[in-house]
Amino acid sequence: MKKILLTGATGYIGKRLLIALLENDYYVICCTRDKIRFEMPVGVLSNNIEVIEVDFLEEETLSAIPKDIDAAYYLMHSMSKSGNYQERELICANNFKNHVSETNAEQVIYLTGMVNTDELSDHLESRLKVEKTLAEGTYNFTALRAAIIIGSGSASFEIIRDLVEKLPAMIAPRWVETKCQPIGIANVLDFLVATLFEEKTYNENFDIAGPDILSYKEMLLQYAEVRGLKRYIYTVPVMTPKLSSYWLYFVTSTNYNLAISLVDSMKVPVVARNKEINKITGIDPFPYKKALQRTFSKIEADEIISGWRDSFVSSRKDDNLAQFMEVPKHGCFVDKRKMKFDNREESINRIWSLGGNNGWYADGLWKIRGYMDQMVGGVGLKRGRTHKHLLHAGDAIDFWRVLYADREKGRLLLFAEMKLPGDAWLEFRMEQDLLIQKAIFRPKGIWGRLYWYAVFPFHGIVFNGMLKRLAVGK
Predict the structure, then answer these.
(1) What is the mean pLDDT of residues 358-380?
(2) Taking the model in full, what pTM does it have?
(3) 419 CB-contact burial (10 Å; exposed 0-12 / middle 13-18 / buried 19+)
(4) In what order do the strands lie in the sheet with 3-6?
(5) Can you list the pairs that 463-468 forms with residues at least 24 positions away whose Cβ atoms lie under 8 Å?
(6) Which end of the chain has fewer CB within 10 Å, C or N?
Protein backbone atom coordinates (compact mmCIF):
# COMPACT_ATOMS: atom_id res chain seq x y z
CA MET A 1 0.00 0.00 0.00
CA LYS A 2 1.50 3.33 -1.10
CA LYS A 3 2.00 6.06 1.47
CA ILE A 4 0.77 9.56 0.71
CA LEU A 5 1.75 12.66 2.71
CA LEU A 6 -1.22 15.04 2.95
CA THR A 7 -0.56 18.60 4.08
CA GLY A 8 -3.51 20.80 4.98
CA ALA A 9 -5.34 17.69 6.19
CA THR A 10 -7.75 19.73 8.34
CA GLY A 11 -8.46 22.27 5.60
CA TYR A 12 -11.36 22.61 3.20
CA ILE A 13 -9.78 20.54 0.38
CA GLY A 14 -7.68 18.32 2.65
CA LYS A 15 -10.59 16.86 4.62
CA ARG A 16 -12.33 15.81 1.41
CA LEU A 17 -9.21 14.57 -0.35
CA LEU A 18 -8.36 12.39 2.65
CA ILE A 19 -11.59 10.43 2.20
CA ALA A 20 -11.01 10.11 -1.56
CA LEU A 21 -7.49 8.76 -1.04
CA LEU A 22 -8.67 6.23 1.53
CA GLU A 23 -11.38 5.08 -0.86
CA ASN A 24 -8.61 4.46 -3.43
CA ASP A 25 -6.68 2.25 -0.97
CA TYR A 26 -3.84 4.61 -0.08
CA TYR A 27 -2.22 4.90 3.34
CA VAL A 28 -2.42 8.58 4.26
CA ILE A 29 -0.07 10.48 6.58
CA CYS A 30 -1.92 13.62 7.65
CA CYS A 31 0.04 16.75 8.56
CA THR A 32 -1.50 19.20 11.00
CA ARG A 33 -0.16 21.92 13.27
CA ASP A 34 -2.57 20.80 16.01
CA LYS A 35 -3.51 17.15 16.47
CA ILE A 36 -6.50 18.29 18.49
CA ARG A 37 -7.97 19.73 15.27
CA PHE A 38 -7.85 16.40 13.44
CA GLU A 39 -11.09 14.45 13.51
CA MET A 40 -11.11 10.87 12.21
CA PRO A 41 -13.51 10.63 9.23
CA VAL A 42 -16.64 8.60 9.90
CA GLY A 43 -16.81 5.15 8.30
CA VAL A 44 -13.18 4.83 7.17
CA LEU A 45 -10.37 2.49 8.19
CA SER A 46 -8.47 4.41 10.85
CA ASN A 47 -5.55 1.98 10.59
CA ASN A 48 -4.85 3.46 7.13
CA ILE A 49 -4.37 6.93 8.64
CA GLU A 50 -1.38 8.33 10.50
CA VAL A 51 -1.44 11.82 12.02
CA ILE A 52 1.75 13.81 12.55
CA GLU A 53 2.13 17.26 14.07
CA VAL A 54 4.15 19.46 11.73
CA ASP A 55 4.50 23.22 11.35
CA PHE A 56 6.26 24.01 8.08
CA LEU A 57 7.29 27.39 9.46
CA GLU A 58 9.21 25.59 12.22
CA GLU A 59 11.98 23.54 10.60
CA GLU A 60 12.69 21.55 13.75
CA THR A 61 9.23 19.95 13.59
CA LEU A 62 9.79 18.50 10.10
CA SER A 63 11.69 15.48 11.37
CA ALA A 64 8.25 13.94 11.96
CA ILE A 65 7.84 13.43 8.19
CA PRO A 66 8.55 9.76 7.34
CA LYS A 67 11.22 8.96 4.77
CA ASP A 68 9.27 6.14 3.13
CA ILE A 69 6.43 8.21 1.60
CA ASP A 70 5.63 7.60 -2.07
CA ALA A 71 3.99 10.95 -2.90
CA ALA A 72 2.79 14.16 -1.28
CA TYR A 73 0.11 16.81 -1.70
CA TYR A 74 0.84 20.46 -0.98
CA LEU A 75 -2.47 22.11 0.01
CA MET A 76 -1.19 24.92 2.22
CA HIS A 77 -1.81 28.56 1.44
CA SER A 78 -2.91 31.81 3.03
CA MET A 79 -5.62 34.23 1.90
CA SER A 80 -4.55 36.78 4.47
CA LYS A 81 -3.33 40.24 3.54
CA SER A 82 -1.99 40.94 7.01
CA GLY A 83 1.66 40.82 7.89
CA ASN A 84 4.29 39.22 5.67
CA TYR A 85 2.12 36.34 4.44
CA GLN A 86 4.04 36.05 1.12
CA GLU A 87 7.30 35.55 3.01
CA ARG A 88 5.68 32.95 5.26
CA GLU A 89 4.29 31.07 2.25
CA LEU A 90 7.77 30.88 0.69
CA ILE A 91 9.31 29.68 3.95
CA CYS A 92 6.70 26.90 4.14
CA ALA A 93 7.30 25.95 0.51
CA ASN A 94 11.09 25.89 0.92
CA ASN A 95 10.95 23.80 4.08
CA PHE A 96 8.51 21.38 2.44
CA LYS A 97 10.65 21.10 -0.71
CA ASN A 98 13.86 20.50 1.21
CA HIS A 99 12.46 17.83 3.52
CA VAL A 100 10.32 15.99 0.98
CA SER A 101 13.32 15.91 -1.37
CA GLU A 102 15.08 13.81 1.27
CA THR A 103 12.30 11.21 1.24
CA ASN A 104 11.41 8.49 -1.29
CA ALA A 105 8.58 10.61 -2.71
CA GLU A 106 8.12 10.07 -6.44
CA GLN A 107 5.70 12.97 -6.94
CA VAL A 108 4.38 16.15 -5.34
CA ILE A 109 0.99 17.59 -6.38
CA TYR A 110 0.17 21.24 -5.72
CA LEU A 111 -3.32 22.73 -5.99
CA THR A 112 -3.04 26.41 -6.79
CA GLY A 113 -4.75 29.28 -8.64
CA MET A 114 -4.79 30.09 -12.35
CA VAL A 115 -2.05 32.49 -13.41
CA ASN A 116 -2.62 33.05 -17.14
CA THR A 117 -2.25 36.83 -17.30
CA ASP A 118 0.78 39.11 -17.00
CA GLU A 119 -0.80 41.22 -14.26
CA LEU A 120 -1.49 39.14 -11.14
CA SER A 121 -2.96 39.96 -7.76
CA ASP A 122 -0.63 39.76 -4.75
CA HIS A 123 -2.36 36.53 -3.75
CA LEU A 124 -1.94 34.83 -7.15
CA GLU A 125 1.61 36.10 -7.50
CA SER A 126 2.45 34.51 -4.15
CA ARG A 127 0.89 31.24 -5.33
CA LEU A 128 3.03 31.31 -8.48
CA LYS A 129 6.22 31.89 -6.46
CA VAL A 130 5.30 28.92 -4.25
CA GLU A 131 4.74 26.79 -7.36
CA LYS A 132 8.18 27.71 -8.75
CA THR A 133 9.80 26.91 -5.39
CA LEU A 134 8.12 23.51 -5.11
CA ALA A 135 9.11 22.67 -8.69
CA GLU A 136 12.80 22.82 -7.69
CA GLY A 137 12.57 19.61 -5.62
CA THR A 138 14.15 16.29 -6.60
CA TYR A 139 10.72 14.67 -7.02
CA ASN A 140 8.36 14.88 -10.02
CA PHE A 141 6.12 17.91 -9.66
CA THR A 142 2.53 18.45 -10.83
CA ALA A 143 0.68 21.74 -10.45
CA LEU A 144 -3.09 21.88 -10.86
CA ARG A 145 -4.38 25.43 -11.29
CA ALA A 146 -8.02 26.15 -10.52
CA ALA A 147 -10.18 29.27 -10.60
CA ILE A 148 -13.34 29.53 -8.49
CA ILE A 149 -14.20 26.27 -6.69
CA ILE A 150 -17.91 25.64 -6.20
CA GLY A 151 -18.87 23.34 -3.35
CA SER A 152 -20.66 23.20 -0.03
CA GLY A 153 -18.65 25.22 2.46
CA SER A 154 -16.24 26.79 -0.07
CA ALA A 155 -15.52 30.50 0.43
CA SER A 156 -16.45 31.28 -3.18
CA PHE A 157 -19.79 29.52 -2.99
CA GLU A 158 -20.66 31.03 0.40
CA ILE A 159 -19.98 34.54 -0.91
CA ILE A 160 -22.13 33.95 -4.00
CA ARG A 161 -24.89 32.54 -1.79
CA ASP A 162 -24.74 35.46 0.66
CA LEU A 163 -24.93 38.06 -2.09
CA VAL A 164 -27.80 36.47 -4.02
CA GLU A 165 -29.86 35.32 -1.04
CA LYS A 166 -29.58 38.62 0.85
CA LEU A 167 -29.77 41.26 -1.89
CA PRO A 168 -32.69 41.51 -4.36
CA ALA A 169 -30.71 44.20 -6.19
CA MET A 170 -26.98 44.91 -6.16
CA ILE A 171 -24.88 47.90 -7.10
CA ALA A 172 -21.66 46.07 -7.87
CA PRO A 173 -18.11 47.10 -8.77
CA ARG A 174 -16.67 46.60 -12.26
CA TRP A 175 -14.91 43.35 -11.34
CA VAL A 176 -18.25 41.51 -11.57
CA GLU A 177 -17.71 41.65 -15.36
CA THR A 178 -14.38 39.77 -15.06
CA LYS A 179 -14.39 36.38 -16.77
CA CYS A 180 -13.92 33.21 -14.73
CA GLN A 181 -14.11 29.45 -15.35
CA PRO A 182 -15.52 27.83 -12.19
CA ILE A 183 -15.16 24.15 -11.29
CA GLY A 184 -17.08 21.93 -8.89
CA ILE A 185 -15.33 20.59 -5.81
CA ALA A 186 -16.09 16.98 -6.83
CA ASN A 187 -14.19 17.51 -10.11
CA VAL A 188 -11.26 19.10 -8.24
CA LEU A 189 -10.99 15.97 -6.11
CA ASP A 190 -11.27 13.81 -9.25
CA PHE A 191 -8.27 15.60 -10.79
CA LEU A 192 -6.23 15.46 -7.57
CA VAL A 193 -6.65 11.68 -7.36
CA ALA A 194 -6.35 10.97 -11.10
CA THR A 195 -3.01 12.78 -11.46
CA LEU A 196 -1.43 10.84 -8.60
CA PHE A 197 1.35 8.65 -10.10
CA GLU A 198 0.19 9.59 -13.62
CA GLU A 199 3.52 9.99 -15.43
CA LYS A 200 2.03 12.15 -18.19
CA THR A 201 1.49 14.87 -15.58
CA TYR A 202 5.04 14.78 -14.19
CA ASN A 203 6.87 18.12 -14.18
CA GLU A 204 3.97 19.93 -15.81
CA ASN A 205 1.28 22.42 -14.82
CA PHE A 206 -2.36 22.22 -15.90
CA ASP A 207 -5.48 24.37 -15.66
CA ILE A 208 -8.48 22.52 -14.25
CA ALA A 209 -11.87 24.06 -14.98
CA GLY A 210 -15.50 23.41 -15.78
CA PRO A 211 -16.88 23.93 -19.31
CA ASP A 212 -18.52 27.33 -18.64
CA ILE A 213 -16.70 30.66 -19.04
CA LEU A 214 -18.75 33.19 -17.09
CA SER A 215 -18.44 36.65 -15.60
CA TYR A 216 -18.97 36.92 -11.87
CA LYS A 217 -22.22 38.73 -12.69
CA GLU A 218 -23.38 35.77 -14.78
CA MET A 219 -22.44 33.41 -11.95
CA LEU A 220 -24.58 35.39 -9.51
CA LEU A 221 -27.53 35.54 -11.90
CA GLN A 222 -27.32 31.82 -12.72
CA TYR A 223 -27.27 31.07 -9.00
CA ALA A 224 -30.47 33.14 -8.68
CA GLU A 225 -32.00 31.23 -11.57
CA VAL A 226 -31.24 27.86 -9.97
CA ARG A 227 -32.76 29.08 -6.71
CA GLY A 228 -35.81 30.53 -8.43
CA LEU A 229 -34.99 34.11 -7.39
CA LYS A 230 -35.30 37.32 -9.37
CA ARG A 231 -32.19 39.45 -8.94
CA TYR A 232 -30.90 42.68 -10.52
CA ILE A 233 -27.23 43.69 -10.73
CA TYR A 234 -26.03 47.16 -11.74
CA THR A 235 -22.33 47.89 -12.17
CA VAL A 236 -20.64 51.19 -11.32
CA PRO A 237 -17.12 52.29 -12.30
CA VAL A 238 -16.38 54.28 -9.14
CA MET A 239 -16.13 51.58 -6.48
CA THR A 240 -12.49 51.28 -5.40
CA PRO A 241 -10.92 47.96 -4.34
CA LYS A 242 -11.06 49.13 -0.73
CA LEU A 243 -14.77 49.98 -0.97
CA SER A 244 -15.37 46.67 -2.75
CA SER A 245 -13.65 44.85 0.12
CA TYR A 246 -15.84 46.63 2.67
CA TRP A 247 -18.91 45.77 0.56
CA LEU A 248 -18.03 42.06 0.58
CA TYR A 249 -17.12 42.17 4.28
CA PHE A 250 -20.42 43.66 5.46
CA VAL A 251 -22.73 41.74 3.12
CA THR A 252 -21.14 38.28 3.15
CA SER A 253 -19.70 35.92 5.76
CA THR A 254 -16.08 36.63 4.75
CA ASN A 255 -13.67 38.51 6.99
CA TYR A 256 -11.97 41.72 5.87
CA ASN A 257 -8.52 40.28 5.11
CA LEU A 258 -10.06 37.54 2.98
CA ALA A 259 -12.29 40.11 1.25
CA ILE A 260 -9.23 42.16 0.24
CA SER A 261 -7.51 39.10 -1.24
CA LEU A 262 -10.65 38.03 -3.08
CA VAL A 263 -11.26 41.47 -4.59
CA ASP A 264 -7.63 41.65 -5.75
CA SER A 265 -7.97 38.24 -7.40
CA MET A 266 -11.41 38.92 -8.89
CA LYS A 267 -10.01 41.76 -10.96
CA VAL A 268 -7.88 39.20 -12.85
CA PRO A 269 -9.47 36.98 -15.56
CA VAL A 270 -9.05 33.28 -14.74
CA VAL A 271 -9.81 31.23 -17.84
CA ALA A 272 -8.21 27.85 -18.65
CA ARG A 273 -5.59 27.71 -21.42
CA ASN A 274 -6.71 24.32 -22.74
CA LYS A 275 -8.30 20.98 -21.81
CA GLU A 276 -5.14 18.88 -21.96
CA ILE A 277 -5.58 17.52 -18.43
CA ASN A 278 -9.11 16.34 -19.32
CA LYS A 279 -7.69 14.17 -22.11
CA ILE A 280 -4.95 12.72 -19.90
CA THR A 281 -7.28 11.80 -17.05
CA GLY A 282 -10.51 11.13 -18.95
CA ILE A 283 -12.38 13.53 -16.63
CA ASP A 284 -15.19 15.61 -18.12
CA PRO A 285 -16.05 18.34 -15.57
CA PHE A 286 -19.73 19.19 -15.15
CA PRO A 287 -21.23 22.67 -15.82
CA TYR A 288 -21.60 25.48 -13.29
CA LYS A 289 -25.33 24.98 -12.76
CA LYS A 290 -24.85 21.28 -12.06
CA ALA A 291 -22.10 22.17 -9.56
CA LEU A 292 -24.61 24.45 -7.81
CA GLN A 293 -27.31 21.78 -7.80
CA ARG A 294 -24.92 19.19 -6.33
CA THR A 295 -23.91 21.72 -3.68
CA PHE A 296 -27.52 22.44 -2.70
CA SER A 297 -28.22 18.71 -2.34
CA LYS A 298 -25.30 18.37 0.10
CA ILE A 299 -26.46 21.38 2.12
CA GLU A 300 -30.05 20.17 2.32
CA ALA A 301 -28.88 16.73 3.48
CA ASP A 302 -26.52 18.37 6.03
CA GLU A 303 -23.59 16.48 4.47
CA ILE A 304 -21.02 19.29 4.46
CA ILE A 305 -17.67 17.60 5.10
CA SER A 306 -15.62 20.78 5.44
CA GLY A 307 -16.03 24.54 5.27
CA TRP A 308 -13.73 27.50 4.70
CA ARG A 309 -14.92 29.13 7.95
CA ASP A 310 -13.28 26.34 9.96
CA SER A 311 -9.88 27.31 8.56
CA PHE A 312 -7.82 29.90 10.42
CA VAL A 313 -8.19 32.12 7.35
CA SER A 314 -11.56 33.06 8.88
CA SER A 315 -10.00 33.78 12.26
CA ARG A 316 -8.63 36.83 14.03
CA LYS A 317 -5.67 34.69 14.98
CA ASP A 318 -3.33 32.40 13.09
CA ASP A 319 -2.14 30.48 16.11
CA ASN A 320 -2.14 26.91 17.33
CA LEU A 321 -5.24 26.05 19.28
CA ALA A 322 -3.17 24.15 21.81
CA GLN A 323 -1.91 27.31 23.53
CA PHE A 324 -5.50 28.22 24.50
CA MET A 325 -6.55 24.72 25.60
CA GLU A 326 -5.45 25.30 29.18
CA VAL A 327 -7.88 27.84 30.58
CA PRO A 328 -5.97 30.18 32.93
CA LYS A 329 -6.89 30.18 36.60
CA HIS A 330 -5.23 33.40 37.70
CA GLY A 331 -5.71 36.99 36.62
CA CYS A 332 -9.13 36.25 35.14
CA PHE A 333 -12.73 37.32 35.62
CA VAL A 334 -15.13 34.36 35.85
CA ASP A 335 -18.89 34.15 35.51
CA LYS A 336 -19.94 30.67 36.69
CA ARG A 337 -23.53 29.42 36.74
CA LYS A 338 -25.09 25.99 37.16
CA MET A 339 -28.51 24.37 36.85
CA LYS A 340 -30.00 20.88 36.99
CA PHE A 341 -30.70 19.53 33.53
CA ASP A 342 -33.90 17.65 32.71
CA ASN A 343 -32.40 15.10 30.29
CA ARG A 344 -28.66 14.69 29.75
CA GLU A 345 -28.81 13.69 26.08
CA GLU A 346 -31.31 16.37 25.14
CA SER A 347 -29.28 19.01 26.99
CA ILE A 348 -26.11 17.97 25.15
CA ASN A 349 -27.99 18.10 21.84
CA ARG A 350 -28.99 21.69 22.58
CA ILE A 351 -25.42 22.65 23.53
CA TRP A 352 -23.99 20.99 20.39
CA SER A 353 -26.50 22.97 18.26
CA LEU A 354 -25.54 26.42 19.57
CA GLY A 355 -24.90 29.24 17.14
CA GLY A 356 -25.54 29.62 13.44
CA ASN A 357 -29.21 29.67 12.51
CA ASN A 358 -30.13 28.24 15.92
CA GLY A 359 -28.73 31.26 17.77
CA TRP A 360 -27.62 31.64 21.39
CA TYR A 361 -31.01 31.81 23.16
CA ALA A 362 -30.67 35.49 24.01
CA ASP A 363 -30.54 36.53 20.40
CA GLY A 364 -31.15 40.26 20.73
CA LEU A 365 -28.09 40.97 22.87
CA TRP A 366 -25.93 38.43 21.02
CA LYS A 367 -26.81 40.09 17.71
CA ILE A 368 -25.93 43.52 19.08
CA ARG A 369 -22.56 42.13 20.23
CA GLY A 370 -22.07 40.59 16.79
CA TYR A 371 -22.77 43.91 15.02
CA MET A 372 -20.42 45.73 17.38
CA ASP A 373 -17.68 43.21 16.62
CA GLN A 374 -18.21 43.52 12.88
CA MET A 375 -18.06 47.33 13.01
CA VAL A 376 -14.53 47.19 14.43
CA GLY A 377 -13.34 44.60 11.90
CA GLY A 378 -14.19 41.41 13.81
CA VAL A 379 -15.87 38.29 12.44
CA GLY A 380 -19.24 39.00 14.10
CA LEU A 381 -21.97 36.37 13.98
CA LYS A 382 -21.96 36.02 10.20
CA ARG A 383 -19.66 32.97 9.96
CA GLY A 384 -22.37 30.69 11.30
CA ARG A 385 -21.29 27.05 11.53
CA THR A 386 -20.50 24.24 9.10
CA HIS A 387 -22.72 21.51 10.60
CA LYS A 388 -26.09 22.01 12.28
CA HIS A 389 -25.52 19.50 15.08
CA LEU A 390 -21.90 18.26 14.87
CA LEU A 391 -18.91 19.92 16.51
CA HIS A 392 -15.21 19.10 16.35
CA ALA A 393 -12.10 20.78 17.70
CA GLY A 394 -11.13 23.59 15.33
CA ASP A 395 -14.66 24.30 14.08
CA ALA A 396 -15.89 27.88 13.96
CA ILE A 397 -19.23 28.85 15.52
CA ASP A 398 -20.00 32.48 14.77
CA PHE A 399 -17.30 34.42 16.64
CA TRP A 400 -16.16 31.42 18.68
CA ARG A 401 -13.66 28.63 17.90
CA VAL A 402 -14.14 25.11 19.28
CA LEU A 403 -11.16 24.05 21.40
CA TYR A 404 -12.58 20.85 22.85
CA ALA A 405 -15.77 18.90 22.17
CA ASP A 406 -16.55 15.58 23.84
CA ARG A 407 -20.20 14.53 23.90
CA GLU A 408 -19.51 11.46 26.02
CA LYS A 409 -17.89 13.51 28.75
CA GLY A 410 -20.39 16.32 28.26
CA ARG A 411 -17.81 19.08 27.82
CA LEU A 412 -17.56 21.84 25.23
CA LEU A 413 -14.88 24.54 25.38
CA LEU A 414 -15.01 27.58 23.10
CA PHE A 415 -12.45 30.34 22.55
CA ALA A 416 -13.55 33.84 21.51
CA GLU A 417 -12.39 35.19 18.15
CA MET A 418 -14.28 38.46 18.47
CA LYS A 419 -12.36 41.71 18.91
CA LEU A 420 -11.63 41.97 22.63
CA PRO A 421 -9.18 43.72 24.98
CA GLY A 422 -8.16 40.28 26.23
CA ASP A 423 -8.90 36.58 25.75
CA ALA A 424 -12.20 34.85 26.51
CA TRP A 425 -13.44 31.28 26.90
CA LEU A 426 -16.94 29.83 27.21
CA GLU A 427 -17.24 26.37 28.77
CA PHE A 428 -20.15 23.95 29.20
CA ARG A 429 -19.62 20.90 31.40
CA MET A 430 -21.86 18.15 32.76
CA GLU A 431 -21.25 17.07 36.36
CA GLN A 432 -23.65 14.49 37.82
CA ASP A 433 -27.10 16.07 37.33
CA LEU A 434 -25.79 19.62 36.79
CA LEU A 435 -24.94 21.68 33.71
CA ILE A 436 -22.13 24.07 34.60
CA GLN A 437 -21.67 27.10 32.37
CA LYS A 438 -18.57 29.22 32.79
CA ALA A 439 -17.43 32.41 31.02
CA ILE A 440 -13.77 33.27 31.59
CA PHE A 441 -12.14 36.54 30.56
CA ARG A 442 -8.40 37.31 30.82
CA PRO A 443 -8.13 41.12 30.44
CA LYS A 444 -5.24 42.96 28.82
CA GLY A 445 -4.50 46.16 30.68
CA ILE A 446 -6.95 48.69 32.04
CA TRP A 447 -9.16 48.57 28.92
CA GLY A 448 -9.73 44.88 29.46
CA ARG A 449 -10.89 45.46 32.99
CA LEU A 450 -13.13 48.35 31.99
CA TYR A 451 -14.65 46.17 29.27
CA TRP A 452 -15.55 43.43 31.75
CA TYR A 453 -17.25 45.84 34.15
CA ALA A 454 -19.12 47.45 31.24
CA VAL A 455 -20.65 44.19 30.01
CA PHE A 456 -21.10 42.53 33.40
CA PRO A 457 -24.61 44.00 34.03
CA PHE A 458 -25.84 42.16 30.91
CA HIS A 459 -24.51 38.76 32.01
CA GLY A 460 -27.60 38.00 34.06
CA ILE A 461 -29.80 38.36 30.98
CA VAL A 462 -27.47 36.65 28.50
CA PHE A 463 -26.03 33.80 30.54
CA ASN A 464 -29.01 33.00 32.77
CA GLY A 465 -31.31 32.78 29.78
CA MET A 466 -28.87 30.65 27.81
CA LEU A 467 -28.22 28.27 30.73
CA LYS A 468 -31.94 27.73 31.33
CA ARG A 469 -32.65 26.97 27.67
CA LEU A 470 -29.71 24.53 27.48
CA ALA A 471 -30.47 22.77 30.74
CA VAL A 472 -34.25 22.42 30.60
CA GLY A 473 -35.18 23.62 27.13
CA LYS A 474 -37.33 26.58 28.31
Answers:
(1) 75
(2) 0.74
(3) middle
(4) 49-53, 27-32, 3-6, 71-74, 107-113, 140-146, 204-208
(5) 463/335, 463/337, 463/437, 463/439, 464/337, 465/361, 465/362, 466/360, 466/361, 466/362, 466/437, 467/337, 467/338, 467/339, 467/435, 467/437, 468/339
(6) C
